[in-house]
Specification:
heterodimer, A: 295 residues, mainly alpha, MetI-like fold, two-stranded antiparallel ribbon, globular, B: alpha/beta, D-Maltodextrin-Binding Protein, domain 2, 2 domains, 18 helices
Chain lengths: 295, 435
């Protein structure tokens, strides 16, 4: 006779639910509740103290003529469009270099990953800020090689460059994902290609890149999401300047929420941010679907 | 069907939860007793204020071992945001140092903070002049008590001026003429900021108020300047930059990043010869230099000796949270830091010259009523000052000023265009918040 399994907890049909309850509770409390609340608050005039007053879609229509919002959206999209491709290319390059069979490679990999562990914590951001002041290390290096110093904070492009450089410097996690995928590609593919007369560069485009498509897509999406929500670096390093050229949507939400006490408007902007990110990710998924399915 | 009902019920719960407020529906009434408890007290400021306040708390804790006071403090940058988050969540400290404009932001109906009139048994309100108490009145409720009344004054680095061989200016023309003189030494006679402090716009407002006799924004929140007046203020600012009296925004951000002026290496190393600061907060600048280097200078006038237009306001106020569980105990502590003679000696003039008569007397008797805050107060007393409108200090208003200053500094727009934009934005905003 088949032995019947006895559930130690005793509530057979609910055991599964019970086991995932901590996660579900956390999800409802810290994700679903704020998510829905923020949508509801986006439909109100709310300063955080008085009771929210329902105003329908007024916050959303205000965005259409709000120069601050339009500028912040343009800045965020520009930042994302520059940073993400650069970071992906740079991380992939670093991953390929670190995938080579050299003695002590583990040490190199660790060193390359350190900036990502440091992240953009306050100390790093402050250090970054001082690197680019008028007589900071960056200008000293420029002068040492005979170039004229740059006014990093007074120039829109240079100020954006500082923030992009900080994020590029933190390429570790993207690189690790690439590195992992690279190690999964069987060496036999390259050996067989070499026998057929295929060089290193051709091998990269004909074997490596096609096999990295999915991972490339994953990194692309993760980086877009992170870049669209950028806040820390411009807030701490440039303060959004000069002339709001590094003032991102994240900073706008923060200012509207905590400085100007327009909490309804801030929540509405967050939702627009969410929709923009979802749209970009949706379009990317649709565009790359065929290519990824071929693997 | 069961599932549908469950989902609907869950959504209903979420919606009702999100609409619920984190604040108490009814304040805790005073019970006339002092119970054992822990109170939180928050303030912003520089190191001089932090050290003195921590010493005062220590004195309190010695005297009242049953009522422990926990300090929460930091610099001004980001402080409003922190308090906003606390007030929205109903987790603010029991006793709070607040800025003048917060009464508008957080307590338009007078219910945002405790009505201190209810605690007048414990707080000696007769220690304050009625005009001082008036600053904290909102809709018939006493929402705050002004610690001191202060205005921004000009403070100079005596060593920098000595190096150049210059005298402190007494009028606008003298100030402007100093630019060239200092510039030949690679120095500046003054500097203003276009960040959270917003001293750039402040000085420009003083200049126009003095020239026109108008008030920039009235106490009840009406814009008193015309578009032309705003243009005049922006032109004045540009003149200061063009004549190298102050650094341009470009140079300032390049040299300092986002650091506040008192933390700027340029100021600390003496390249900046002067600053515009509240008498109640100048201590943080003083601490960055050697003792006695910073000196108060004349509040500038025009060539005819007209020295109007300079402004004063309650430099800061103390209030008690409407959510506190311990109003008696909080009031007792508030009375201690406002009116206690010993506490006054410990606190000194780190929040300006105390508005409380007993605190001021205590400082006077112990010879502590000296220093830059006192000198600045004396200079302001000699003038026909204007009381600043709390509306002028709102964060959103500061963003309009700073944005205009930044744009004309970078020559992105003309002063005329910037003035038009600022005039429209201010009017629109003032109308919106008073709805």
């Amino acid at each position: 006779m088949k032995k019947k399994y006895r559930n130690p907890i005793g509530v057979k049909s609910y055991t599964g639910l019970l086991l995932i309850l901590p996660f579900i509770a956390g999800f409802i409390l810290f994700t679903a509740y704020p998510f829905i609340s923020s949508f509801l608050l986006g439909l109100t005039d709310y300063n955080g103290i008085r009771s929210p007053e329902f105003i329908g879609g007024e916050n959303y229509s205000r965005m259409l003529t709000d120069k601050g919002f339009i500028n912040a959206t343009a800045v965020t999209l520009k930042y994302t469009a520059i940073l993400v491709p650069l970071k992906l290319i740079f991380s992939l390059f670093a991953a390929i270099v670190l995938n080579m069979q050299i003695k002590g490679m583990g040490v190199y990999r660790t060193i390359f990953y350190i900036p990502s562990i440091l992240g953009s914590n306050l100390a790093v951001v402050i250090m970054w800020q001082f690197l680019f002041t008028a007589d900071g290390l960056a200008n000293q290096l420029l002068e040492a090689v005979g170039l004229s110093p740059i006014g990093w904070y007074g120039n829109s492009a240079a100020a954006m460059g500082i923030i992009i450089l900080l994020r590029l410097w933190e390429f570790g996690s993207t690189m690790v994902i690439f590195l992992n995928a690279l190690r999964d590609i069987p060496k036999e593919y390259y050996e067989a290609a070499r026998v057929d007369g295929c060089g290193r560069i051709r091998g990269f485009f004909a074997i490596t890149l096609p096999l990295l498509k999915n991972v490339f897509f994953l990194n692309l999406i993760l980086q877009i999401i992170a870049a669209m929500q950028e806040f820390n670096a411009p807030y701490m390093i440039t303060g959004g300047g000069p002339l709001k050229s590094t003032y991102t949507l994240g900073m706008l939400v923060y200012d509207e929420m905590f400085s100007y006490h327009n909490m309804g408007y801030a929540n509405a902007i967050s939702w627009v941010m969410f929709v923009i990110i979802a749209l970009i990710v949706g379009i990317m998924t649709a565009v790359t679907k065929r290519g990824r399915a071929e693997i | 069907m069961k599932k549908l009902i469950l989902i609907a019920a869950a959504l209903g719960c979420l919606i009702s939860l999100s609409a619920c407020e984190n604040r108490k529906s009814q304040i805790t009434a005073p019970d006339g007793k002092l119970d054992k408890c822990t109170l939180r007290f928050s303030w912003w400021g520089g190191d001089d204020r932090h050290e003195a306040t921590l010493d005062a708390i220590e004195l309190w804790n010695e005297r009242h071992p049953d009522i422990t006071v926990i300090p929460e403090y930091g610099g001004w940058d980001g402080w409003t945001e922190k308090i906003t988050a606390q007030l929205s969540g109903g987790t603010e400290p029991d006793i709070i140092q607040i800025n003048y404009d917060w009464l508008i932001s957080f307590s338009q109906d007078g219910k945002g903070f405790y009505d201190l009139n209810l605690l007048s048994d414990r707080i000696e309100l007769d220690n304050f002049d009625s005009e001082i108490l008036q600053f904290g009145q909102v809709e018939g409720k006493l929402n705050g008590i002004a610690v001191s009344v202060s205005g921004r004054g000009l403070f100079y680095n005596s060593e920098t001026y000595k190096r150049v061989g210059a005298e402190y200016p007494t009028n606008w023309t003298e100030l402007i003429s100093l630019g060239e003189k200092f510039s030949s030494h690679g120095l500046y006679p003054l500097d203003l900021d276009a960040q959270s402090g917003g001293t750039a716009w402040y000085l420009a407002v003083v200049y126009v108020q003095q020239k026109t006799g108008k008030q920039f924004i009235s106490l009840d929140g009406k814009l008193g300047f015309t578009e032309e007046d705003i243009k005049m203020a922006l032109d004045f600012y540009k003149t200061l930059e063009d004549n190298k009296v102050i650094r341009t925004v470009d140079i300032r951000t390049d040299e300092d990043g986002t650091a506040a002026l008192y933390q700027s290496p340029e100021f600390i190393q003496g390249r900046i010869g002067g600053v515009l600061e509240w008498g109640s907060s100048v201590g943080k600048y003083e601490m960055s230099l050697s003792e006695g280097v910073l000196e108060a200078g004349a509040l500038l006038s025009d060539e005819n000796g007209n020295n109007g237009g300079w402004m004063v306001k309650p430099s800061l106020l103390y209030t008690i949270s409407a959510n506190t569980d311990y109003p008696d105990e909080a009031a007792e502590f508030l009375n201690f830091i406002l009116n206690d003679g010993e506490a006054a000696k410990v606190l000194g003039t780190t929040r300006g010259i105390p508005a409380s008569h007993t605190a001021e007397k205590s400082l006077e008797e112990s010879g502590l009523l000296t220093g830059l805050a006192e000198e600045n107060d004396r200079l302001l007393d000699e003038l026909d000052t204007v009381t600043i409108s709390p509306y002028m200090e709102l964060a959103q208003m500061k963003s309009f000023y700073n944005s205009a200053i930044e744009q004309i500094s970078f020559n992105a727009v003309s002063t005329e265009e910037a003035a038009r934009e600022m005039y429209f934005s201010i009017n629109d905003y003032l109308e919106r918040i008073k709805k």
